[in-house]
UniProtKB/TrEMBL annotation:
InterPro entries: ClpP/crotonase-like_dom_sf (IPR029045), Enoyl-CoA_hydra/iso (IPR001753). It catalyses: (3Z)-octenoyl-CoA = (2E)-octenoyl-CoA; (3Z)-decenoyl-CoA = (2E)-decenoyl-CoA; (2E)-tetradecenoyl-CoA = (3Z)-tetradecenoyl-CoA; (3Z)-dodecenoyl-CoA = (2E)-dodecenoyl-CoA. GO terms for molecular function: delta(3)-delta(2)-enoyl-CoA isomerase activity. It comes from the Eukaryota. Pfam families: ECH_1. Pathway: Lipid metabolism; fatty acid beta-oxidation. This is Enoyl-CoA delta isomerase 1, mitochondrial. GO terms for cellular component: mitochondrial matrix. It comes from Drosophila busckii.
Amino acid sequence: MLRSTISSLVPRATSVARHMSNAAKLTTVEINDVTGIATLTMNRPPVNGLNLELLTDLNNSIQEIEDNKSRGLILTSSNPTIFSAGLDILEMYKPDKERLKAFWTTLQDVWLALYGSAVPTAAAINGHSPAGGCLLATSCEYRVMLPKFTIGLNETKLGIVAPKWFMSSFLSVLPRRVAERALNQGRMFTTDEALRNGLIDEVANSKEEALAKCAEFIGSFSKVNPLARSLTKQQLRAAELSELENERAQDLEKFIFFVNQPAVQKGLGIYLENLKKKSKN
Ligand SMILES: CCCCCCCCCC/C=C\CC(=O)SCCNC(=O)CCNC(=O)[C@H](O)C(C)(C)COP(=O)(O)OP(=O)(O)OC[C@H]1O[C@@H](n2cnc3c(N)ncnc32)[C@H](O)[C@@H]1OP(=O)(O)O
């Protein structure tokens, strides 16, 4: 059934050993022969932490799906319990200056590409989805999640601040007062809470079911003119997209300034240490 499997073994050199998770590509794209829908899978063990390489591969895969004229894009993870752990905190902790710039710029690219994608998009959230993971999921038009996982923008819990465009994605899904409270609290929603509040659209009992429900959502546009649909979506999302496009340089500057604050570095260090302690117990 797969028209093509664009998986990859592209060797990649990097000078920073701690970021070298794999020499192979960290995403795969599979296009269903019958439906024409592309499934984009993140595959960066152990937790799909969004580092520069995974973001670069995500960006290239989204581009490839747009260029292939796929009928839709479903974003998911190869990990059975984690959709994405969000940004790889190691990218922000004691960062290399040039790499930090490339990291944030590529994250901006991914958001612009996914939130502004011309094709219908859906997320099959088959595991936990904090922070950057939630950003990816809420950038899609539809979300199906498996039971007993969590999703949300927990940045305030880490002592960091979600940028405006993270909030835009969140606000495109949640009512303002729910979004505002959740952002201030750094709230992580369980699957049930996410469904009740509208942060996700459906619950599925397996990844296969989630993928099928996402495909069904994308199929709901089969009788709609694709150009009219994509121009409608892009008009609805234009204000948020232009806001970041027009302020990319300032957004990058703010991020670099903020991350380099000693108090932020200290907070990230403690958070990482706690994560490591927890994983050893
Ligand atoms: C005024 C405007 C200014 C603008 C300034 C901008 C500021 C920056 C904004 C940044 C925005 C977004 C931030 C993020 O996305 S930060 C990331 C947030 N993510 C989290 O908090 C999730 C943390 N992880 C977990 O909760 C759990 O790991 C999990 C995902 C639920 C999975 O649990 P698990 O039990 O299955 O796995 P676990 O044992 O915890 O982890 C395995 C190893 O992976 C490491 N790890 C986990 N998450 C991360 C991560 N996000 N980054 C780096 N490393 C991570 C963990 O430490 C374990 O490592 P090891 O095996 O011990 O070496």
